[in-house]
Design goal:
Blueprint (H helix, E strand, L loop, with lengths): L10 H52 L5 H28 L8 E4 H13 L6 E6 L5 E4 L1 H17 L6 E8 L3 E8 L21 H7 L5 H11 L2 E7 L5 E8 L1
Parallel strand pairs: 2-4
Antiparallel strand pairs: 1-3, 4-5, 5-7, 6-7
Helix pairs in contact: 1-2, 3-4, 4-6
The protein binds adenosine-5'-diphosphate (ADP).
C-alpha cells in the first residue's frame, strides 16, 4: 500500500497532469510499435538462415557417411528445426500488420473442407467430420486469413485429442450472425484458463504442450485475425471431455 495520492489543487495542475499523461501514453505507444516492428524484422531475418540449415541437413542425410546413430541425430535436429520454423512463422503472423485487403463474401463450406483435408494427413486415427446444415454459409472477410484461423483451431483440436476421437466442425446461419463451432473430445481446457489461452505464449500445461509441439501463438493469431473481422471467439466446455471453440461472425 503506497503513499496516499495527492489530489490536484488547481485547473493549472490538472492541465499539467493531462499533458504529462498524454506524453506518457504517446511514449508507450511508440515503444509498443517499435517492439512489434522488432519482432517482425527478427522473425523475417531468421527465416533465411533456417531455410539454409534445413536444406543442408536434408542433403547431408542423403549422403553415404550417415550411419544409423548419425541418422537419429539428424532426425532430432530436423525436428527441432521444424519447431523453430513453426515458431518463426507464427511470430511473423502475430507481429506483422495484417494485409488491408478488401473484405469479400467467403463461402465457409469449401474453405473448411480444404483445411480439413490438409490436416487429415497429420490427424492419425482422429476423424475430422464437418457438419454443415447450410452449405451456402458466407461470411464477409479475407479468405487467406480465415483459412489460417480454421487451420490453427483444427490443428489444436487434433493435437490435443487422443487417437480414435472425433473433431467436429459445425456452422449455423442465424438471423443476425453466423456461428461456427470446432468441437473436440480431447483433454479440455480448465475454466480458469479459458480467456488466458488467447494470450501470446500462454499454455495450459507447459511441459505437455512442449512435447506436442506448437509455438503458443496460434490462438493469439486467431484472435487478432478475428478482431479484424469483427468476430468473437470463445471456448466452451464440451462435456464430458474436450472443448468447443465458438466463433460468432456478426452480419
Ligand atoms: P500451442 O502452439 O501451444 O498449441 P495455441 O495458442 O494454439 O498454442 O494454444 C494455447 C494453449 O491452449 C495450448 O498450449 C493448449 O494448452 C491450449 N489449447 C488450445 N487448443 C486446445 C484444445 N483444442 N484442447 C485443449 N487445449 C487446447
Amino acid at each position: 500500500l503506497g503513499e496516499p495520492i495527492e489530489l490536484p489543487q488547481s485547473a493549472d495542475e490538472i492541465r499539467q497532469l493531462t499533458v504529462s499523461f498524454n506524453q506518457m501514453m504517446a511514449d508507450l505507444r511508440r515503444s509498443f510499435l517499435l517492439q512489434k516492428e522488432f519482432s517482425a524484422n527478427a522473425a523475417h531475418e531468421l527465416r533465411t538462415p533456417l531455410a539454409v540449415m534445413r536444406a543442408k541437413l536434408d542433403v547431408f542425410s542423403l549422403s553415404e557417411q550417415v550411419d544409423h546413430g548419425t541418422q537419429e541425430m539428424v532426425d532430432s535436429i530436423s525436428q527441432q528445426l521444424e519447431r523453430l520454423s513453426v515458431l518463426i512463422e507464427d511470430l511473423l503472423w502475430f507481429s506483422k500488420d495484417l494485409p488491408l485487403e478488401e473484405m469479400t463474401p467467403v463461402p465457409l463450406y469449401p474453405l473448411l473442407c480444404d483445411v480439413a483435408e490438409e490436416l487429415s494427413s497429420v490427424a492419425d486415427e482422429k476423424t475430422i467430420e464437418i457438419q454443415i446444415e447450410q452449405t451456402d454459409c458466407y461470411v464477409l472477410g479475407q479468405d487467406r486469413l480465415l483459412e489460417r484461423v480454421f487451420y490453427n483451431l483444427l490443428e489444436n483440436a487434433v493435437k490435443y485429442s487422443p487417437a480414435g476421437k472425433q473433431v467436429r466442425i459445425s456452422t449455423q446461419k442465424e438471423q443476425d450472425c453466423v456461428r461456427v463451432q470446432v468441437a473436440d473430445q480431447g483433454e479440455g481446457i480448465p475454466e480458469e484458463c479459458r480467456s488466458a489461452i488467447f494470450e501470446p505464449f500462454f499454455r495450459v500445461d507447459k511441459s505437455r504442450s512442449r512435447a506436442v509441439g506448437g509455438s503458443g501463438l496460434g490462438l493469439a493469431v486467431c484472435k487478432k485475425i478475428l478482431e479484424r473481422h469483427h468476430a468473437q471467439i470463445t471456448v466452451l466446455p464440451n462435456q464430458p471431455n474436450g472443448s468447443i471453440f465458438e466463433i460468432i461472425f456478426r452480419s
